[in-house]
């Protein structure tokens, strides 16, 4: 009998104690998580280092990289189709000259399939989060403490 | 499909358009509230992974395989990578084995948290524990981001080791996250497993006896919660599991409550495994280089791992080319689905029990369809 | 001939009498229009739906509505209400059209009509019932399970038929304990009139001597108003949405409203029978406003407890719920009647 009462009241008390905590919600696009710097987001191409060897195109599991000529340069450079890319980082790992790298930029939505094919000139630019998200006001880091998960909010 | 049953029996299509069916269509024959027959109808998410793997070399092949079960990525990738290593005849270094064990156990925790949430929701209502468990995956996903660079489908394993070493200062973060998580497990136990109405809903429901579990071929925690103590990590230890001390979670009852509780206890065991692996990690090299552009030797290899849902095996046959000739993957969910379809014949099930039983087997239909 | 003064005098008197007449009509219509009548019911439904979304969201560690209405998202339910009004009403081709339209229209009426008997102040009750307020209330609300049966049958769908039969089983199993515990309270108070029952609680609220009755009544409310853990007829995980599956647009909104109106009716009865109705120390100045305020405060606390139960517990299976109704609640309610008789005979100073 006592066991039954405990098993009916205790869950209620546990759930009620959560009503008073801060919620876990991140209100994107007004807030954004600070992602670790080795995150696999969009590629960045260093055109000076790239010699057009084609290892990235051969190792890509989804065949999204093709080498295209760039006006005024000696070698061909990779063009990546983000409609197919699975962000597996094999092209970055196997590039013998470290020309490709991935940064933590993930705002890659587009309005047509052709916009998702990034030519080498576009890959060479380093994007800025502020342009992609004009409403951004704060950024958060996740911190795990003994008592709970806290979000530390900082103004951008 | 079998013919329409007689007039008294009603055939319900527990179909893909259903709030609690997953990506499958199950035909349920009911007589009033009693379920007479369950006929699963798979194939909604077939992606031809085994055929794709015939066109990828062994380094690229990790990428489709790990997307088979997304919550439990590392275990699937590990099965494939170990099969390839057995084919090529190489053995990864010790540090790589410990890193693999840690990542696999974190994936097991992530998968069981997600399955626990769904199992809680299947009982009815909109329980708060479902969303707490989804929120509690966040610290572990953060850890995985720092180590591998992404939150799921890591493509971190390669035949011969792992791609990168652990970053510095990751050990403190691990220990903090693990102690926070142990406290949360206590909260889950007090809020859900000691909940009188959940016990009324899940105890003595869908009882699976040990002989039936072995005869029908159950896998994973569904098998171990019927009293049969079989775990690939103890019977055929792989990676660094023979140097780590842990228990195999076995419960005697075999009902839905035992299946869900077994997953909870496995999470507790996984925390112990990760702690031991982090403390005892040896130093040394983390990768033996394997070139993806060389021919594979002729032969076959089979490797099995204990994924979160059961035993997952990968069988590779190579005829000497650059890419494998055939890759066959055995999936634990398909085996558990067969057990589910035979369950009305061995015990009494009511229609209202069907979601609880389905989600106590923790199905993930993407790996039944591959 | 009449002089101008006489004409103006009698005209003024006539307008004065007319104004008096209209004013008295309005005053007697005020309970119907404002509280506990139509305005209160609609406001309650709106506020409770918003409150449920915010409250459950914070219990699940997320935010509820945030954007509609800058602070707390309080305009969200109004926005949803307007959106649902503009949706198309889809009638299945092989459904019984008259019954299909009839059931959701009847449902809020049947549930809400019972609120007419509840007193919010000693003289502020819509219909006193000639001294038989309590049995009339229970009689009208017992028509409740009829409408889900009509709706489920009319929609001609396997899921709805199962849902409507479940609703009927559930409501029937829950009504008898409710009636018996209400009978115990009527014995304690000595009358069937709801205003007399509230006045009889001046010394102590009936929840203390009639504790067993309060427990049975509380569980009965959850079962009769179909809230978790007894929302079996709307088991979304099993039978999609029970008898409400096929409804869309304004008919769906009427069924949602009916759920909250029946909850309101039963909660008001619980407050009247066990928690002292409008009695309480005088706050906010005049006793009239204080009566209404006490009813609202007690209603708010009770609603908060009942709503949170949705996140805490899963739901019962139908046979378990019926077993609770018939096997456990009825003996407790009968025991409550015995205790009420004993108190009335031997401890009359309590009441």
Explain the overall architecture.
The complex is a heterotrimer of chains A (156), B (370) and C (351). Chain A has helices at residues 2-19, 55-59, 90-94, 120-124, 129-132; strands at 31-33, 43-45, 65-69, 76-81, 100-102, 117-118, 138-144, 149-155. With 156 residues, chain A is of the alpha+beta class. Chain A has a three-stranded mixed sheet, with no helix packed on it. Chain A has a three-stranded antiparallel sheet with strand order 3-4-6. A three-stranded antiparallel sheet of chain B has the order 1-2-3. Chain B has a three-stranded antiparallel sheet with strand order 6-7-8. In chain B, strands 4-5 form a two-stranded antiparallel ribbon. The longest helix of chain B has 29 residues, at 94-122. Chain C has 351 residues and is an all-alpha fold. In chain C, helix 11 (250-274) crosses helix 12 (287-312). Chain C starts with a helix and ends in a 5-residue tail after the last helix. The chains are: A alpha+beta (156), B alpha+beta (370), C mainly alpha (351). Chains in contact: A-B, A-C, B-C. The A-B interface holds A 4, 6-8, 10-11, 14-15, 18, 24, 35-36, 38-40, 58-62, 86-90, 93, 102, 142, 144-146, 148-149 and B 56, 59-61, 63-64, 67, 128, 132, 135-136, 138-139, 142, 145-146, 149-150, 153, 155, 163, 167, 173, 176-177, 179-180, 183, 187, 190-192, 194-197, 199, 292-293.
Count of individual helical segments of chain B: 14
Pick out the low-confidence regions of chain A. none
Q: Describe the strand arrangement of the main beta sheet of chain A, using strand numbers.
A: 1-7-8
Beta-strand proportion of chain A = 15-25%
- Largest beta-sheet details of chain B: 3 strands, antiparallel
The largest sheet of chain A is: 3 strands, mixed
SS class of chain A: alpha+beta
Mean pLDDT of chain B: 87
Shape, principal axes of CA atoms of chain B: globular
Structural class call of chain B reads alpha+beta
Uncertain segments of chain B: none
């Amino acid at each position: 009998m006592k066991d039954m009462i405990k098993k009916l009241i205790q869950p209620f008390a546990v759930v009620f104690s959560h009503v008073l905590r801060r919620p876990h919600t991140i209100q994107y696009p007004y807030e954004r998580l600070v992602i670790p710097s080795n995150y696999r987001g969009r590629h960045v191409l260093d055109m000076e280092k790239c010699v057009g060897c084609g290892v990235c195109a051969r190792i890509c599991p989804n065949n999204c990289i093709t080498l295209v000529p760039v006006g005024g340069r000696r070698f061909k450079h990779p063009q990546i189709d983000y409609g197919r890319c699975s962000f597996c980082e094999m092209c970055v790992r196997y590039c013998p000259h470290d020309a490709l790298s991935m940064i933590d930029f993930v705002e890659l939505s587009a309005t047509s399939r052709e916009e998702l094919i990034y030519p080498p000139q576009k890959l060479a630019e380093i994007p800025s989060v502020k342009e992609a998200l004009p409403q951004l006001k704060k950024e958060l880091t996740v911190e795990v403490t003994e008592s709970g998960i806290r979000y530390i909010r900082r103004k951008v | 499909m079998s013919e329409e049953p007689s007039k008294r029996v009603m055939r319900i299509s527990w179909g893909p358009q259903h709030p609690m069916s997953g990506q499958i269509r199950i035909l349920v024959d009911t007589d009033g509230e009693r379920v007479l027959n369950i006929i699963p109808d798979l194939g909604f998410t077939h992606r031809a992974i085994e055929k794709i793997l015939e066109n990828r070399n062994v380094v690229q092949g990790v990428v489709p395989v790990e997307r088979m079960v997304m919550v439990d990525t590392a275990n699937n990738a590990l099965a494939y990578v170990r099969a390839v290593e057995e084919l090529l005849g190489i053995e990864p270094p010790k540090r790589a084995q410990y890193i693999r064990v840690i990542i696999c156990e974190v994936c097991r925790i992530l998968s069981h948290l997600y399955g626990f949430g769904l199992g809680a929701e299947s009982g009815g209502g909109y329980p708060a524990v479902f969303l707490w468990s989804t929120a509690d995956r966040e610290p572990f996903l953060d850890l995985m981001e720092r180590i591998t660079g992404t939150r799921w489908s890591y493509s971190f394993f390669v035949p011969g080791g792992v791609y990168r070493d652990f970053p510095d200062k990751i050990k403190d973060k691990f220990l903090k996250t693990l102690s926070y998580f142990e406290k949360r497990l206590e909260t889950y136990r007090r809020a859900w497993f000691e909940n009188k109405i959940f016990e009324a809903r899940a105890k003595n429901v869908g009882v699976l006896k040990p002989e039936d579990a072995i005869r029908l071929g159950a896998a994973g925690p569904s098998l171990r919660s019927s009293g049969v103590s079989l775990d690939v990590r103890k019977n055929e230890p792989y990676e660094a599991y023979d140097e780590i001390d842990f228990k195999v979670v076995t419960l005697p009852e075999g009902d839905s409550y035992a299946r869900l509780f077994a997953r909870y206890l496995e999470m507790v065991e996984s925390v112990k495994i990760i702690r031991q692996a982090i403390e005892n990690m040896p130093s040394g090299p983390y990768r033996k280089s394997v070139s993806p552009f060389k021919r594979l030797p002729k032969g076959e290899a089979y490797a099995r791992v204990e994924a979160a849902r059961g035993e997952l095996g990968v069988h590779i046959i190579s005829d000497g080319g650059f890419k494998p000739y055939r890759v066959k993957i055995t999936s634990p969910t398909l085996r558990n689905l067969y057990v589910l379809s035979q369950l009305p014949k061995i015990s009494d099930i009511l229609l209202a029990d069907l979601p609880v039983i389905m989600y106590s087997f923790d199905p993930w239909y993407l790996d039944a369809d591959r | 001939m009449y002089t101008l003064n006489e004409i103006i005098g009698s005209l003024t008197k006539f307008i004065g009498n007319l104004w008096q007449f209209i004013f008295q009509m309005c005053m007697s219509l005020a309970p119907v229009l404002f509280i506990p009548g139509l305005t209160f019911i609609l406001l309650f439904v709106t506020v409770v739906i918003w409150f449920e979304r915010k409250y459950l969201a914070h219990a699940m560690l997320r935010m509820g509505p945030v954007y509609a209405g800058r602070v707390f998202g309080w305009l969200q339910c109004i926005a949803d209400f307007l959106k649902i009004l503009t949706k198309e009403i889809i009638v299945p081709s092989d459904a019984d059209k008259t019954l299909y339209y009839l059931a959701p229209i009847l449902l809020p009426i049947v549930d809400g009509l019972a609120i007419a008997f509840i007193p919010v102040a000693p003289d502020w009750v819509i219909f006193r019932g000639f001294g038989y307020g309590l049995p009339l209330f229970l009689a009208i609300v017992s028509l409740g399970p009829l409408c889900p049966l009509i709706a489920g049958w009319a929609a001609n769908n396997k899921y709805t038929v199962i849902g409507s039969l479940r609703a009927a089983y559930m409501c029937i199993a829950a009504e008898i304990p409710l009636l018996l515990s209400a009978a115990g309270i009527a014995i304690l108070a000595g009358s069937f009139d709801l205003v007399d029952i509230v006045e009889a609680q001046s010394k102590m609220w009936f929840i203390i001597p009639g504790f067993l009755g309060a427990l049975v009544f509380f569980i009965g409310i959850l079962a009769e108003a179909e809230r978790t853990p007894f929302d079996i007829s709307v088991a979304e995980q099993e039978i999609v949405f029970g008898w409400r599956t096929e409804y869309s647009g304004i008919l769906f909104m009427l069924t949602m409203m009916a759920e909250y109106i029946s909850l309101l009716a039963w909660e008001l009865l619980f407050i009247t029978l066990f928690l002292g109705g409008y009695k309480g120390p005088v706050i906010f100045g005049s006793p009239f406003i204080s009566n209404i305020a006490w009813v609202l405060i007690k209603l708010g606390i009770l609603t908060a407890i009942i709503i949170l139960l949705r996140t805490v517990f899963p739901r019962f299976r139908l046979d378990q719920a019926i077993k609770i109704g018939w096997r456990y609640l009825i003996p407790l309610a009968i025991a409550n009647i015995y205790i009420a008789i004993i108190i009335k005979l031997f401890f009359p100073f309590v009441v």
